[in-house]
Specification:
By secondary structure, the chain is α/β, with parallel strands linked by helices. Helices cover about 25% and strands about 30% of the residues.
Amino acid sequence: MHRICIVGAGITGALTAMMLKEKLQQISIIIFEKSKGTGGRMCTKRSPFGSSLDIGAQFITKTSDINHTQKRCYSELFQTGLLKPLQGTVEGLDVSSYSENYACSCGSGSIVKHFLQLAGCEILFDHKVTRINSSHNKLKLLCDNNSSHEFDTVILTIPVPQVLQLDGITSFIQNGELGKLKAVEYCSRFALSLFYKYNTNFFDNLSWTAKYISENPVLRFVSIDNLKRGKQHELPSVLIHTTKEFGKKNVDASLTSVLPVILESLENILPDMPKPSDMKVHKWRYSQVEKSYSGNPGCLVLSTFPVLICGGDGLSFSTFEGCILSAESIVKNFTENFVT
């Protein structure tokens, strides 16, 4: 049986696994994920009090110019109730007349889990790939837990800088491609999660459920997450994203050192906001793609025998639709060129 490893259990990895299994039911797919859970940047955290909050992607923007596969994915999510219209007002949002915004009713992480469930493949958590090399027409992966694994095909859906950090990866990349991969850029941000174990009408009295903040050196976005998803009955949860400039300047700083700065800026913007019962800060080193791979091909075939493919939003667009395009490109390349 042809064995495939997908590195990364984010949205691109989940979509790729689902599409591959639909076309080639006889293949064996295993997903390696470095963390303890799925989702990647579509990540939903739960508080000790039962509420939840999206710390990465905040909502999904559906554009009018979409292909058949994108329409099918949206239809699936609408039918299952995982996507619903974004509730309330998003202040400062640049609204296009050709787009519609949707919130993930159960959190953005539920969308990734949905497609992974459809794929029905095995996921190995706490498996961070550190090295890749070719041996006897197989690709051998070494993980940070000292386990090693061999596959016929490896598909990398992690951020491009993480791909380039893999020991042995440069032996698969041609010089022209290496320069283009190195040119891919991501912005960095910090995400602050605030959870409450009590109800308060402070957030109900705001004129917005989410807000883009302008002319602030630290904060860029704030969202009342439960209200954004139409969950007025849930305990309040608030998400704050910093600016990319602050993220870039402090990308190597400790979480404890940036937390007071974020809180001080938040107090200046919302001085009467009640103190949370619990808070957590998270660093998104690779938050969104600033500069994608030249031409946005969706994927890049690094090796044809054995097959090594690189995909993800770094080779497409840093949106849900862009990740669908990348997964579609990966599957198209694999099935048309490497399946007999």
